[in-house]
Amino acid sequence: TGKAAPSASTAAAAGASAAPAAAAGTVANPALRDPSGGQALSGTATTMVPLSAFASFAESSAATSVSHQDGELATTVSFNLADGIALSDGQAAVRQAEAEIGLPNNVRGSFQGTARSAQESQQQQPLLIAAALVVIYIVLGILYESLVHPITVLSTLPSAGVGAVLALLMFKMEFSIIALIGVFLLLGIVKKNAILIIDFALEAERSRGLSAVDAVREACLLRFRPILMTTLAAILGALPLAIGFGDGAELRRPLGIAIIGGLIVSQLLTLLTTPVVYILLDKLRRRSPAERQLSRTGDVPASGVQPTPP
C-alpha cells in the first residue's frame, strides 16, 4: 500500500503532462485565423513569412475572364442605336470617339457583329452590281445578236438607281441591305422598258427596212401603253411594302420605297433617253453600207403585199 502512492502520483503527473501535450497538438481551423496576425498556415516546422508583409486584401471590380482574339488580348464594348440614327452614323461616331481618345499604337479597334456584317456588305456591293450588269449584257447580246444595243438597255439603269436613292433620301432612310435588294429588283424591272422599245425597233428596222429614227419613233408610239401598264402594275405591287403593315414593316419599307422611286424616275426618262441612245449607237456601229443593205434584203412591204417576180 505504501508503494502504491508513488505510482498513483506518477500516473497523475503523466496524465497532467499528457494533457498539455494534447492541447499543444490541437491545431485550429486555418480558415478562422487572421492573416494579418502573422500566424503560420503551414503544418510543417518551417519559418513562415506573414502574408501581410508583402500583400494586402481589398474589394475591387475585375473581369471574370480574359478574352483573346487572334492571339491578342481583346475586350468588347457594345453600343445601341438611338431612334432615328442609322448604323453608318453610329459607326462614324465610334470612330470619331476613338480618334479623340487617342489610343496607343498597340491598341486597335474593329467592329463585330451587325456592324461588321454591314461593312462587309457595303464592300461587296460594287462587285455584285458589276456582276449583275455583266450578266445582263451577255444575255441581251445573245438575244439581239449585237454588241451595241445591249448598251442601250443598260443606259436605262442609272435613272432607276438615282430614283431609288432620291426616294430613300426623301423619306430619310438608310441605304441598307434591304434597299440594295430593291436596287437589284430594279435592274430586272426597269430594263423591260428599253427591251420593249428596242425589240420592236430592231424588228422594224431589219424586216421592213425602216431607218433607225423611224423605227424607234414607231416603237415608242406603239409600246407606250404596255410600258405604262407594266410600270403601274409594279408600282402598285410595291406600294404595300412602302406603306408598311404588320410586324417587321420598318424592315420592308426601304425595299418598297426604293422600288417605287426607281420605277417612277425610270418611267419618266425611258421614253426620252432610250431613243436618243439607240440612234447614237446605231450611227456608231461599225458596219459597212453593203452589210447594212444586205440586212434589208428580202424585206416585206408594210402593206403586206408580196412582190411578184417578173
**Main sheet summary:** 2 strands, antiparallel
Low-confidence stretches: 1-29, 294-310
CATH second-level architecture of the domain at 123-285:
Up-down Bundle
* Strand residue content: under 5%
Provide a count of the helices.
11
Mean pLDDT, rounded to whole units?
A: 76
* CATH-assigned homologous superfamily of the domain at 123-285: Multidrug efflux transporter AcrB transmembrane domain
Order of strands in the sheet with most strands? 1-2
Structural class: mainly alpha
Instruction: Tell me the name of the CATH class of the domain at 123-285.
Output: Mainly Alpha
Overall outline: elongated
Helix content: 55-70%
The arrangement of helices and strands along the chain is HEEHHHHHHHHHH
Radius of gyration: 43 Å
- Which fold name fills CATH's third level, the topology of the domain at 123-285? Multidrug efflux transporter AcrB transmembrane fold
Record field, number of beta strands:
2
Distance between the termini: 173 Å
Characterise this structure.
By secondary structure, the chain is an all-alpha fold. It has a domain of 163 residues: Up-down Bundle (Multidrug efflux transporter AcrB transmembrane fold), CATH 1.20.1640.10. 62% of the residues lie in helices and 2% in strands. It contains eleven helices and two strands. It has a two-stranded antiparallel sheet. A hairpin with a 2-residue loop joins strand 1 and strand 2. Helix 7 crosses helix 8 and helix 8 packs antiparallel against helix 10. The longest helix has 36 residues. The protein is elongated and about 115 Å long.
